[in-house]
Here is the input.
Amino acid sequence: MEADSRDVARMWRVYRTIYQMCRDRGYLVGQRDLDRNLDDFKTEFAPNNTVDRNRLTFLVQKRDDPGDQMLVFFPEDASVGIKPIRM
Here is the structure.
């Protein structure tokens, strides 16, 4: 059970860092997502102490060009090659 809690906390840090990176690169992100604490993250994305990675998927658009969009997803695979990333 403790390993699950560590995994949830790790995914929360990854989630928070990715949102910060998107903001720093000029993408529009909600302040609520940037400020989400670990307890809120657990409630929304890991109610059973296991992160539902599909629910973490989000789409952002550039602040100065709404047509420039980026899809962020969190695959279940431990190691991801280039094939699932290319669209």
The two ends are 36 Å apart (CA to CA). The longest strand covers residues 58-61. Residues 1-72 form a domain with the Dna-directed Rna Polymerases I, Ii, And Iii 27 Kd Polypeptide; Chain: A; domain 1 fold (CATH 3.40.1340.10). The mean pLDDT is 90.
